[in-house]
Amino acid sequence: MTSLGKLLRRVAEVVAAVLMFTMFATFILQVAIRYSARLTWIGESIPLLEPTNFGWTLEFCLALWVWLIFLGNAFVVRDQDHVTFDIVYHAVHPRVRRWFIIVAGLAICIALLPSIAPTWDRFHILRLKRTATLSNLFGDWIRMRDIYSVYILFLVVVPARYGWKAWLAIRQGGVNRQQPSEGQKP
User: Fold this and answer.
1) Residue 143 phi, psi (nearest 5)
2) Model confidence over 49-103: pLDDT tens digits?
3) In the chain, where the domains are located
4) Does residue 67 come out as left (phi exceeding 0), alpha (psi in the -120 to 50 range) or beta?
5) How many CB atoms are located within 10 Å of the residue 100 CB?
6) Distance of CA 176 to the CA centre of its chain
7) What 3 state SS string does the chain have?
8) How big is the CA angle at 184 (ends 71 and 186), to the nearest 5 degrees?
9) What span, in angstroms and rounded, lies between the C-alpha atoms of 92 and 87?
10) Do 112 and 159 meet the contact criterion of CB atoms below 8 Å apart?
């Protein structure tokens, strides 16, 4: 992997970690507010901690989760991190493995790339829809399109990654050289 690739991967890992931390902190806030809601004197003495002001936490956690899943799967998760059933893959000759890589890469490209246009059309409608509670936190500018826009990035990056793997398998004629062989540590 090139130094630019390593840098981009590290940036994606940091962004994913920040998203996870923010989601966890929001969840802890949500739990604290939920259990302090029974103590009505807290909301009366400190208006900022009024439980009705924290309806946004659930939707914010869900939005962060959507971004974490699609951004993480597009940029952070490696092939070695996936659960695979590779008994047949390891049982066949390396030339057949090469064709497995090519067919799988092309299948992912064929499955995901055509869905970009219909998804983009749906985003045209989502630009009009506001979130239910996040406008209390961020203002009226955030739309559902903004929350789900990471999915378009996912639809572009994942086929690009697997298309590149298929291209390398066609060009180099061997199996994926980044995969550790049996007995080696990843």
Assistant:
1) -120, 165
2) 677 778 888 889 999 999 999 999 999 988 888 788 888 888 999 889 899 999 9
3) 1-77, 81-186
4) alpha
5) 16
6) 24
7) CCHHHHHHHHHHHHHHHHHHHHHHHHHHHHHHHHHHCCCHHHHHHCHHHCHHHHCHHHHHHHHHHHHHHHHHHHHHCCHHHCCCCCHHHHHCCHHHHHHHHHHHHHHHHHHHHHHHHHHHHHHHHHCCCECCCCHHHHCCCCEHHHHHCHHHHHHHHHHHHHHHHHHHHHHHCCCCCCCCCCCCCC
8) 15
9) 9
10) yes
pTM of structure: 0.78
Taken as a whole, the chain contains a residue count of 186
Decide if 145 contacts 92 (C-beta within 8 A): no
| Spatial separation of the C-alpha atoms in residues 112 and 60, rounded to whole Å | 27
Q: How many CB atoms lie within 10 A of CB 47?
A: 8
Which residues, listed in sequence order, are joined to residue 130 by a DSSP beta bridge? 143
Instruction: Report d(CA 39, CA 72) in Å as an integer.
Output: 39
